[in-house]
Amino acid sequence: MQRIGVLTSGGDCPGLNAAIRAIVRSAIALGWSVTGIRHGYEGLLRGEVVPLDAAAVSGIINRGGTMLHTARSSEFETSEGMKRAAAALDQLGLAGLLVLGGNGSLRGAWELSKLARTPIVGIPKSIDNDVGGTDCAIGFDTAVNTVLEAIDRIRDTATSHDRLFLVEVMGRKNGYLALAAGLAAGAEEVLVPEVPTDLDAVCRRLEEGKRRGKRSSIIVVAEGDDAGGAFAIAEAIAKRVSGYEIRVSVLGHQQRGGAPTAFDRLLASRLGAAAVNVLKGGQRGKMIGLIHDEVVVSDLERAWREMPRFRPELVTLASVLAS
User: Fold this and answer.
1) Please, which of 83, 124, 247, 290 could form a disulfide with 137 given CB 3.0 to 4.6 Å?
2) How far is 26 from 134, CA to CA, in rounded Å?
3) 103-132, pLDDT tens digit by residue?
4) Domain extents for the chain?
5) Which residues contact 3 (CB under 8 A, 6 or more apart)?
6) CA–CA separation, 306 and 291 (whole Å)
7) SS3 305
8) Cα–Cα dist 285/301, whole Å
9) Is-contact 165 158, C-beta < 8 A?
10) What phi, psi does 211 have (nearest 5°)?
11) Are 249 and 165 in contact, with CB atoms under 8 Å apart?
């Protein structure tokens, strides 16, 4: 009987359990068994393995987080740690390993695949949607909807109290989460790392809005924005614009949690099942993605070498629609 492994690495996100479920049940349909590796690459180094059968993944499709737990491993990032991980993986005697991770974790999988005899296939997950080789990574859709719900609630308070709210969301290097949520929420401004922030221009637009009778506003800020984050921007605006009571809301890790949306459950199920089929076909060093609603197989290094194209026209659209 063929035996394959699966691990989740890096930050958690909704949809990981749906993908694990799809992997286990697709493998069982082929007559294979599945070994789960707990706590990502750190667990691989420590030998933290657990058998996964159909019962083990029952009732998890609707749960956020990851039943296998996840972690970041500083040892794995060293050349010696990578060699140890390759030896540990080969010692497990698996017919293949599936890695659910973001661009950093999938880069680690690519490096590991060059040292290990065990075939490795990657599956993209990221609430920032910053993985190459796919239009959408697992977890992004749920995170956008979580942020959107929070902004909608904050707007109720902003409107009631005539306040300016700055809502900071995750995204150190990639602002697509902020951009998608801000555009969908009708935010007055969306500030992202990809576009230099012109605070004077932001303040001018806020002043113009006040002259038109606008008494409250929402500014969505990606945490990696070059102006220094929501608190620094709020302080700068307070010095330039009068008449606004300013508040800051940092959404934090709640963006990673919660039950996955239908889209994320479907995406995770499709990618998980497809990854098993790639191992069945004898391929290695590959990743699974979704492009134009078609499941595609790419070289694993595409996950981190080819970042999704940023769309500046969406920043312009957000500004136009909020004016």
Assistant:
1) 124
2) 21
3) 999 999 999 999 999 999 999 999 999 999
4) 3-139+260-305, 143-256
5) 32, 33, 34, 35, 93, 94, 95
6) 14
7) helix
8) 8
9) yes
10) -65, -25
11) yes
Our answer to whether residue 128 is catalytic in this structure is yes
Residue 217 token pair = 């506003």
Distance CA 118, CA 244 (A): 60
Cβ atoms of 317 and 180 within 8 Å: the answer is no
CATH 3.40.50.460 holds for 143-256: yes
What is the pTM (predicted TM-score) of this model?
Answer: 0.95
Q: 228 is written with which tokens?
A: 């220094």
DSSP 296: E
| Residue with tokens 């740690």, as numbered in its chain | 81
**Topology, domain 3-139+260-305:** Rossmann fold (3.40.50)
What do you get for the CA distance between the two ends of the chain, in Å?
62
Catalytic pick among 12, 90, 128, 299: 128
Q: Residue 103: name the closest of 18, 46, 5, 174 by CA.
A: 174
290: which DSSP letter? E
Task: Look up residue 268 and give its two tokens.
Answer: 């995770």
